[in-house]
Amino acid sequence: MRMLARRLPFYVITFVIAITIDFFIPRLMPGNALDAVLAKAGSQMGSPQALHALERLYGINNPASLPSQYTQFWARLLHGDLGISTSSYPTPVTAVIGTALPWTVALVGMATVISFVLGTLIGVLVAWRRGSWLDNLLPVTTFFQAAPYFFLAFLAIEVFSVKLGWFPYGLGQNQLDYQTGLAPSHVADVLDHALLPALTIVVASAAGWIVGMRNQMLTTMDEDYVLIAQAKGLSKRRVVWYAARNAILPSISGFSLAIGFVISGALLTEIVFAYPGLGFTLYTAVINHDAPLMQGIFLIITLAVLAANLLADFAYLVLDPRTRQEA
Amino acid sequence: MALSVSEPAVTARGPGVPPRPGRRRRVQLPRSPKVLIGFGLLIAFLILALVGPVLAPYDPSADLSLSGLPHAPTAAHWLGTTQTQQDVLSQLLAGGRSTIVVAFLAGVVATVISVVVGVAAGYFGGLADDLLSMLANIFLVLPALPLLIVIFGFLPGSSDDLLIGAIIALTGWAWGARVLRAQTLSLRSRDYVQSARLIGESPTRIIGWEIVPNLLPVIASSFLFTVLYGVGTYTAIAYLGLVNIDPHWSWGGMLFWAQSVNAQVGGYWWWYIPPGLAVAMLGSSLALINFGIDEFINPRLRQAGLSRRQARRAGLPGRFALGLTPVARPPAGTGQGDAR
Amino acid sequence: MTSDGALPAGAAPAATLIEVRGLRVDYGIGPAAVHAVIDASLALVGGAVLGLAGESGSGKSTLAYAMTRLLRAPGVITGGQVLLHSSTPASPPGGGGHSSAPGRTASPPAGTIDLLAADEAQLRQLRWSRIAVVMQSAMNALNPVITVGAQLTDVLRAHRQQLDRGGRRQRAGQLLEMVGISAGHLGRYPHQLSGGMRQRVMIAMALALEPAVVIMDEPTTALDVVTQREIMQEVAGLQRDLGFAVLFITHDLSLLAELADSIAVMYAGRLLEQADAADLYRAPRHPYTLGLLQSFPPLHGPRKPLTGIPGSPPDLHDPPPGCPFHPRCGFAMDICRAEMPAVLPLGTAGSRSAACWLQDGAHEVPAELAVPEPAPEPAAGPPPAGPAHAAPAGPAAAPPSPQLAAATPDPARTRP
Fold this sequence. Notes:
The complex is a heterotrimer of chains A (327), B (340) and C (416). With 327 residues, chain A is an all-alpha fold. Chain A has helices spanning 2-28, 31-45, 48-57, 66-78, 93-128, 137-146, 149-163, 184-221, 224-231, 236-253, 255-272, 278-287, 291-319, 321-326. Chain A has 14 helices and no strands. The radius of gyration of chain A is 24 Å and the shape is globular. With 340 residues, chain B is mainly α. Chain B contains twelve helices and two strands. Chain B has helices at 33-55, 88-124, 126-141, 144-153, 161-170, 174-188, 191-199, 203-239, 251-260, 263-266, 269-297, 308-313, and strands at 2-4, 26-28. Mean pLDDT of chain B is 76; it is low at 1-27 and 332-340. The B-C interface holds B 13-22, 303-307, 310-311, 313-314, 316, 320-330, 333-334, 336-340 and C 4, 6, 8, 21-23, 27-30, 32, 34, 36, 39-41, 56-57, 59, 61-62, 65-66, 69-81, 116-117, 120, 123, 140, 217, 312-313, 315-317, 343.
């Protein structure tokens, strides 16, 4: 438990730093660049007062000192105020994010978990059956790792939606479907729309987990205890389990490095599918230079990544008795 | 390409190959087809970055006004045209330079930061280590792409490759720093470094002569990794239209334009496949070389001396199961007393 | 029980557990392959301790792991046989009452099996129930994320299906207590134990199924000297009580002189000399053995200057022609540089052998290599040389370890 108690402050500090970066970025930018952004925002909102408020938010024509601006910034955040979206003025950023978030949590969350589990299992198998035809998976995974997620999404739509007609072209649901809630046809429609983007994310991100787990597994299989497990005449499944149980530990501690990539890639995939989640919202924000919305999404994604990391730390704690002993 | 190291980072344990006296110190990168293909591709891409824009048959930004729809490949336009009748091949050739330059700049800047931070943290230890490690860990968990989006969101339309590369590097140095710190820590406790410290050599000299040369394989791997990261990240940023994407062509920018008219739905494959494939191939070439370096750093990843082809020729199963040593006895040798 | 009579002379056929015949092991395939073990033949007798000595890289571990088919890639067995003779007579001569403890039900069918021809399922069944392994470093040999108890019971679960969960747990506790660790440690993880305790756990694990043979690969090199001593006493005591046979691999010839019944000396992949422990120790017949003995301070008798062996072991990628030892041998002759000598049976009834041209009868043997074998003296510590090799040792024929037994009381019984 002490390990978690040590990690939690780290995540809090990281989040504080993320917020601080968020505060300072507009103030560190060259003035003309900021002016261009604000001019665009002003034209979208069509309200001089709103533009004025936004300028003050970014430290322009703001009589308050920098420290007091900083405390005000925190006070707003702590009240759950992420500002007003300029592109869908006057909707608050929290409301825009709130509409998009469930879509993303369902799609990206599920796809990421599936790809981690699947990739890890395949990685174990590839390492254990080293020298079999499964080795041919590796060059393929290299390609999938190097290709941008959104490029794979382009291909997926071209092949499976346009050429084969198996899936819809994009969006989260049929535009003509006015059903909501848990009506069976609606659920089927939503699933139908989610399947191809989910598959794209799984295929694109599983490659990384496969290679990582394979390499860890190969390293672990060289350990004496795996050879001893074999010498003991244990069943093959047990031997593999003994090795995998150790090999997964670095995979989990490397989670922090990977999860940011995976989530970013998944968000970009949403754009290609015009999926109504956070990624597509981010795209809209970027296209429209909607600075408050970009900043809000940055904070939300940071929070999600930190939470995922905390979860990984907890999993590590459960899986590795050596860290438990420190407690 | 040979990397010179004084001591192998990891030595295989257990009943392995008997140690070879007079083991050569210069160790060759594995000459596997993977590494060779990787190098070949990378060199081709570097040449493309150099001469691509000159080779472009048309002005990539020119409106060639054929008609209102993208045109499939023709003799005049080998890779077809875009919605605004720009030549895709010209864009591809012109876009390589910026993509490759930004990625390598990001790699160089990030590697410099990670070497400085990682080696300093590992070598000096104490409070410096605590603070630098914390900094690296924070940058490691901060999601890079959303952060870059906020930064470039306030800096729209930049076409300064160095600035873009440096900003990308800011989010990509932490992994390398962490790895280098760990390696430096283990090097610091080696005898030759300890004795250099006792003699009173200056830290600069010890770091420059004893530590950094021994870190070269790790630094090389870290550099390739950040270049790979730079390719992906720059492509993503350009794809989002966060940097200048019209006169300043890049492969990500091409994908932005393709996305803006839903080329994937319209079936304009000639428009988005070339830049996407180019990014994937460039990334693959870097990853393939990295495979070689990984196997060099971690010998356990190498298939120690047994190729499948050789095994089959000797009548052995292609794969070697753990705890089931293959037996290739000559058919006549099964008789009794063939030894004594 | 054994259809082929051509056993190494001197070993009573009924008691031979494992016979290695002309074993050849390569690392790699094809012309670049390294020959790590060349034409090695050994016989392990029930209840006896066979020491396998040699410098690091001599192939001794390779031989042991190849015998059990546990050798990792790129190891390939390219010739020979490893015959496992099953089910020794119910009560071996010499009265090995302890070894036929309950639970022998899972033992494989009687008969002789060539381990090199066995398939995966056969091997899986034979492993640990017939041949167990103790490795050099228990830290590496124990799975760090699984409790000691689970690592002891998994083997019971795989081989003793008749035991239920409680029975397995009880047996695991007994095993721990047998090596002097309280059963309360079953729930511990390996990192929570000291180095000596970990090695004890490994030994307990090795004995879980009462195997006929335990292969010990330098089981004490990773430990400090005091713990080494304790563990060796433990092993000697357990071996005496339970009557299992041991293949003991070490570079320490003087340790073997105390512990082993017979010793095989390995060099550059070849077995150069085999003899009863006392004979080999007092009256070596191969120059390499002599050199090895001169590298260690003698345990008994007058001090002799330590001369060691000049030079270093050959590069197995490029072995010298002829006898691999000739570049370092003080007695090397022309023929040694050209041709490898055969393994020559020596002494009474071929109870010992050496692969050296000096011993072929056509050459004059230097005095150092012609010391008469010590006569069997009941009073002097070591047991009668010849019979000890032939007769399987039960509790009656204790290993020649008067020092070990006398030095301190058996720790297994003194530890709380």
